[in-house]
Each structure stands twice: as C-alpha cells, then as structure tokens.
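Morning F.,

Quick status update on the modeling queue. The single chain you submitted on Monday has been processed. Sequence for confirmation:
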Amino acid sequence: MQSNTYTSFYADVLALTGNSSFTTTEQTSILANANRRLYQAYRSFSSWPRYIVGGELRPATTGLIIRDAIAGATYTISTATRSGSVVTITTSAPYAMFTGSTVAVAGLAASYTIASATRSGRVVTVTTNQSQAMVSGATVTIAGLSGTVNANGSVVITTVSNTVFTYKVGSGSGTETYTGSGTIAYVSPSTDYVITEDSTTIFTITLDSGSGTETYTGSGTAVYAGISEVDSFNRVFRDDPLNLNSSVEYEFYVDIDGAHVINNFSNNSSFWVNYYKEWSGPYTAASTDIPLEFYRFAVHATYADYLRFDGQIDKAMAEENNAQQYLMIEVDKAENQRNVNTLQRRISTYNSRQSR
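Structure tokens below.
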C-alpha cells in the first residue's frame, strides 16, 4: 500500500495556511490534530484494504483467540533432521510460532555422492547414493564428473524425486555417461512451509516428498512473519475461508482478552480469523508511513482545525467540507473493491453454523 511522510504532510498544511513557518506550539498542535484526523479516517470505514485481513490463522487457548500481535522474527536453526518427508527442526532459542503457522525455512545444507550420471542432449540425469529431498528450482553445486560436456558447477534442479534429479547444461547434443567420483553440495532455498507440530524450540514441517533419513548441516534459518494486533473480530472459521468453498463458521463473543469461541467442541488450538487490524498510529514528525488513502482528508481537516482555532469559523467549515469530499472519494474506492460484500457478508444456514 502507498504511504507518504509526515514531512510532506506538514509542508502541505503549511502551504494551505500561506505561512512560511509555524511556531513550536503550533507544530505540536498540528501533529496532534493530524493524528486525531488520521484516526478519524481509520474509524470512518471498517474495510480499508490496508487494515482488513480476510483470513489468518491465530492461536487459541481453551477457545480464547488472542487479539495481541505476535512479532515476526528470524530464528537460527541449531539442528535439523529428516525422516521421510518430515523435517524436525530445533531452534537455538524459544520461538513464538504455533502449529499451522507459515514459516520460511532456508539454509539447510546436505552433501550427497553420485551413483550415476547420464546426459541426453542438454539434460543431465543424476542418481544419488543416498535418499534426498531436494526441491525443484534449488541451486546445487556438482563436482567430480568427467565427460565430453562439462556437467560440473552450479546448476538449477529441474525435476527431483527421492534419489534421482535432473538439470540442464549450457549446451550439448547426443548422449553420454559420466565417470568420476561425483559429489553434490545442496543448500535449501527459502521456502514457505506450514508447521505441523511445535513445542517451545522444536517444530516439524512436511516436504512435498522424501524417503530415508538424513541430518542437515549449514546455517539454517526459520523466518516467521508474525501476526498483527486485532482491533475488531469479524468472523471466525475452522479452516481457511479463502481456500475452501465452505468452511464451518463459529459464533463468538469478545471481551478485553480477545474472542471467545462458543461451543468449541473440538477444543481447537487455533482458528482462522477475519479481522480488522489495529490502527498504525499515532504518527510522529519522523513518520514515513502515513496511509495515502487518508492523506488528503487529514491534510485539509488539519487545516480546518487550524482555521477554527484561529477564529476563522466560516473558512474552517468550508475546508471541513473539502476534507470530507476527499474522504468519501477514498471510501468509494475501497467499497468498489468488494471487501464488504465478499469478506464481511454472512449467510447463516444449517450447514454453515458450528452449533448444531
């Protein structure tokens, strides 16, 4: 989403007043009024694209979904082992992730020896002595192969399954079988996975395929994007509502702690939530993230406040109208993106109700 700086905001308000500068007291007042007006814009519509979340998995304890944010973080992987397609990862410090969270895992290293390698045209087919679970699109380093067309160096895997993978060389025709003691050095690229189990410093992920076992080396990392603080809970689902034609929807009530799911018979540890994010203010004189959709409204509304405090009531009322017009333009634009009808429309039926 587009944003602007408070420096630009301040300059625009100053230009509207016709002054060359503000006093220190006026600068403080301008910033305070700017925050008040930006918050007013945030509250004026419940489906601003910047703040609406269509569906996000959030943790729950005995049916209570937290409203607090969980900060994103990068965790260092101390150990990682694979059994079949399941990778068990231990981080060097406790993490805030939970089962169902999406985490980007990268840097898991492994070495393999080559049992055989053949080429047909530009395509090299390699069979390893060990079971592996490399992924298509990853870059690996091949060394030790001898043949007419050089097959060594950094290459990109095109297909992979268990002990066999392929890649392409720069040029080549005909066929050949390579000799030599070939080796493969693999470092996993950053790939998103869903955590299947978790406990303090240990979590598991499931690869698309894999057989046998192995222990990874290297400087692996697990990057968690985090979740935002909830301002308003809209809807609660059992499964991802944006990825399924139908998902069971739960009734709930909200108190200071969060959303309490009613009749949570399965005692879910997490729920998919449609919600409105907490306001991103208050802003400071150094802010660079003022929402552009609020910007023109807030500039003219802040100028209207300035006029009102200066006793220019008629001019202030006219400027207030200008500000409201800017706000309505942005609200209309947001409404036309169908967030209200698509994300917040609720049709209650026998099949969609959880309490039945």
